Amino acid sequence: MESLALLKQAVDAIQPLSDREWTDFSSIWKNYDVKRKELISSAGEKENYLYFVTEGVQRVFFLDGDKESTLVLTYAPSFGGVMDSFLLQIPSRYYYESLTPSSFLRTDYNSFSSLLAKHPVLSDFVRKGITHSFAGLLERMVELQCFSSEEKFRKLLQRSPHILKLVPHKYLANYLGIDPTNFSKLINTVRI
């Protein structure tokens, strides 16, 4: 499916736009490609772009010394990037990295914010998108803090059954807060 058609489908699922709003919205996005294991955004830098993933897998991670924590996994069709840094225009605390060769549509902050001022309905789109993301984040916090390793693994597979084929297992184990050895055991023993 064409990149803009994927974007339209994702936008319509959150907040359908009029033809004029869609024409203006779709005009601010540009194609952007990266290689495998490429840093797209770095901690300490302001996120200047909002990404829409059309191909590949990426992660947002936090680095504390030599310890990495995978916080978010993104893949098509979804929005990506370091959202708090982008929306607040503050230096990021996180990195955004491609795990596979990846293709995006991306827009810069100035184009995006100008469009929000021109079309107030897009503020509703952003609010709804952030609210859905926040609800998902709260659900993930419950899973991380209250579920056993097996329950976290099962929940991940229920939500995204294809994820085992998309994301290297070491990143999934880190994302779930499970020791990689235990993660391997779960792959071999848990049936969904």
Helical coverage, percent range: 40-55%
Spans of at least 5 consecutive residues whose pLDDT stays below 50 are none
**N- to C-terminal distance:** 30 Å
Strand tally? 8
Largest sheet: 4 strands, antiparallel
Find the structural class using helix and strand composition. alpha+beta
Strand content: 15-25%
- Mean pLDDT across the residues is 92
How does CATH name the architecture of one domain?
Sandwich
Order of helices and strands: HHEEEEEEHEEHHHHHH
CATH superfamily of one domain: Jelly Rolls
Query: Count of DSSP helices?
Result: 9
Which CATH class of one domain?
Answer: Mainly Beta
Gyration radius (Cα, Å) is 17 Å
Quaternary structure of the protein: single chain
Strand order of the largest sheet: 1-8-3-6
CATH topology of one domain: Jelly Rolls
Shape: globular
